[in-house]
Amino acid sequence: MSDTKNLKLKRNLTALVDFSRIINSSIDLQFILNNVLLTCLGKFLATRGLIALNENGVIRVKHSKGISDKLIEKFPLLDAGDNCLNSDSLKKFRNSAKLKAAEKISSSDDCVGIVCLGEKLNKTEYTQDDLEFLKTILNISATAIQNSVRINELQKVNRELDSRIQRLNSLFELSKEFGLFSESTKVSKLLVFSLIGQFLIQKFAVVVFEDGKIDILESKFDKDELIKVVEESGSREITETINVEELDEKYEGFKRLGINLIVPMQVQGKTKGLILLGERINKQPYSETDIEFIYSVGSLAIISIENKRLFQEELEKRKLEEELDLAREIQQNLLPQTLPAYSSYDIAALNMSSKQVGGDYYDVIPLDENKFCVAIADVSGKGFPASLLMANIQAFLQIICRQKVNLPDATALINDLICANTSDGRFITFFWALMDNAARKITYVNAGHNPPLLIRDGKITKLKKGGMIFGVMETSVPYISETISLKKDDVLILFTDGVSEAMNVTGEEFSDERLEKLVIDLSSKNADEIVEGIKNEVQQFSKGTDQSDDITLVVLKVK
Amino acid sequence: MAEFSTSVVNKGDVSIIYLKGYLDAHTAPALEDNFMKLIDENKFKIIANFSELEYISSAGLGVFMAYIEKIRDNKGDIKLTNMSEKVFNIFDLLGFPLLYEIFKTEEEALEKFNESKSVGNE
Q1: Strand partners, A242
Q2: How many CB pairs under 8 A join A and B?
Q3: Which one of A22, A229, A406, A470 is separated from A99 by 20 to 30 angstroms, measured CA to CA?
């Protein structure tokens, strides 16, 4: 009898050693739990059982056999402590799940979990011996379970760490890459690649708001519909991430398209675009850290896109400036490079253009040995339109001077031509004169230009005769001309309003009065000196201000 | 910087892309070209052999995501093979095994393609 008992003991021991070896050879928690539970069920001929483990102080079911999921769900919230087996809620649960036996899995310092077993197949109660044996099995299991749990936790932490490193790598990589590309489409493509790769996404879009325009850089949605939704939902105003739960009525359209997440792309707190993402293929929600990552990547991208746009703008501005320089040069070349010499007249001229291309023009055109034409004009406005008209009138003048037409008729003709070429309300003030060298006389027509000054013996005569300014309407009333005989030392000053209207720092104008007084003072000097004198005076006056208008001067002194 | 290169070999109606080096945001467009070309040629059965790939970033993974839908719509697939542990870890980390069949060897992937073909022919 004692032999059989010994044999039984020996078998039990061998089984326990085997069991210990098996569960300690693995770190796979499920494998271990499965083995422990199967061993218990086999040993006691039970058909149902569960193992619950201590997870941060709470005991949760980790493995079960023969118990429905529905029942498992009713497992009570159990604090892991010395008394956990005695809690009423557990007893109640055991009753409903028909779990007769329960034992704690204890390590030296902690409650690792509990095991509950159903009734034995042979309907006998669990004896004290049975429970002792169960305890032995569980004592053997405790270390293996605990080790495995710790390794699992470690692996989880490791994986989270890996995941963070991986995300940091992605961010680092993209920031490096976004610096190099020149096109926003390339930036958005890499942005999309990274996001769909990172989160397993198949539906996505990237939109950018630019000067009130919606630009779709990437889209797996119907583009027209997407634009409609983006426009109608007022999504420019989105400043916070909107999650699928928050996609309420206002963003119904996005939901309908299959968008689960809206992340704004911001520069200095201003929304410049949106990242729209569909569901993840693994059905997982976007977590806080996911959204943080998406926001960071989006910020990198939009800053890069924005920088490129600013760079482009700067480039175009510079190009425009270069063209402007070129235009100014051309315009300067339209003015006479040298002035003709006539025995009766000392001629000098000056044109100082302001920063822009402008509409001032003067010319001195020789007609024959005895006669020449002197002209001055000011086109209203500035910039390219004015300079084009200026070039226009220069061409007319050069040609018409070679025709033998009288001055008033020629003036009327030029006005008609200018009228045909202007449509936006621009006009030109114009003065021209035919100078006779031998007879020392001037015949002029003034089409609304600041009256040139004729200084004789300290007195000023203003040359006002003529007619309407150019460009307002076709000539209906003929222009009239005036002829004046000139005397030695007479001085003729042609100027544009850039001279008389030059401003000083207080906003005061140089004025006609000041100019008239000045030219009387200067009238004894030669033409060059008079030009120089006026220029110096005007510059002195407007010192400290930007020259706002072209300054043009033509001075003729009768010899 | 380590570069990235690909080469494509056709075995029957299956195209095998060999990836070599570093697949990141910088080099992802090169792989994209491969996929676009294959799709253009109506080659939808694709094996990506990673044996010489040293690194893959999410931008690289994104290229696989970007074309898989179109390829599967055309009754094709991208199967992944010969990954180093390091590369597999990244795929695994982001949950790719859920979506892609990953094989130890190219032959296994080829076999899988041919299997489904013979099933389709029946």
Answers
A1: A262
A2: 86
A3: A22
Q: What is the per-residue pLDDT for A1?
A: 53
Note the pLDDT tens digit of each residue in A389-443: 888 889 889 888 888 788 999 999 999 988 888 877 889 999 999 999 999 999 9
Mutant choice from B36, B58, B69 vs A, greatest count of A C-beta within 10 A: B58
Residues found in chain A: 559
Nearest Cα of chain B lies from the Cα of A293 at a distance, in angstroms, of: 12
Which segments in chain B show pLDDT lower than 70? 1-2, 117-122
Whether B122 maps to a domain, the answer reads no
The reported pLDDT for the residue numbered B76 is: 93
**Class of A2-153 per CATH?**
alpha beta
A449 with A520: CB under 8 angstroms?
no
Looking at chain A, which residues constitute the CATH 3.60.40.10 domain(s)?
Answer: 335-558
What distance in Å separates the CA atoms of residue A535 and residue A351, rounded to the nearest whole number?
10
Cα–Cα distance list, A495 to A451, A454, A467, A513, A531 (Å): 8, 12, 18, 14, 10
Q: For residue B102, list its beta bridge partners.
A: B80
Distance separating alpha carbons of residues A381 and A102, to the nearest angstrom: 99
Strand duo B77-81 + B45-56: pairing? parallel
- Residue A204 backbone zone (phi > 0: left; psi -120 to 50: alpha; other: beta): beta
- The distance of Cα A474 from the centroid of its chain, to the nearest Å, equals 50
User: pTM of the predicted model, to two decimals?
Assistant: 0.63
pLDDT at residue A460, as a whole number: 95
Residues contacting residue A520 through CB under 8 Å, at least 6 positions apart: A455, A458, A460
Nearest Cα to Cα of residue A116 among A148, A138, A136: A138
Range of the structural domain that residue B11 is part of: 4-116
Please check whether residue B121 lies inside any domain of the structure: no
Give tens-digit pLDDT for A216-225.
888 888 888 8
Contact A388, A327 (CB under 8 A): no
- CATH code for residues A335-558: 3.60.40.10
Distance between CA atoms of residues A34 and A144, nearest Å: 12
Whole-number Å distance between alpha carbons of B4 and A145:
45
CA dihedral A538, A539, A543, A545 (to 10 degrees): 80
Q: Which residues of chain B have a CB within 8 Å of the CB of A159?
A: 93
Q: What is the DSSP string of A165-195?
A: HHHHHHHHHHHHHHTT---HHHHHHHHHHHH
ipTM of the complex: 0.84
Q: Which one has a higher pLDDT value, A404 or A226? A: A226
Q: Which of A166, A186, A202 sits opposite B65 (nearest CB)?
A: A202
Contacts of A284 in chain B (CB under 8 A): 95
From-to residues of CATH 3.30.450.40 in chain A: 2-153, 179-311
* Helices A527-541, A512-522: inter-axial angle, 10-degree rounding: 140
CATH for the stretch A179-311: 3.30.450.40
Integer Cα distance of B53 and B34 in angstroms:
16
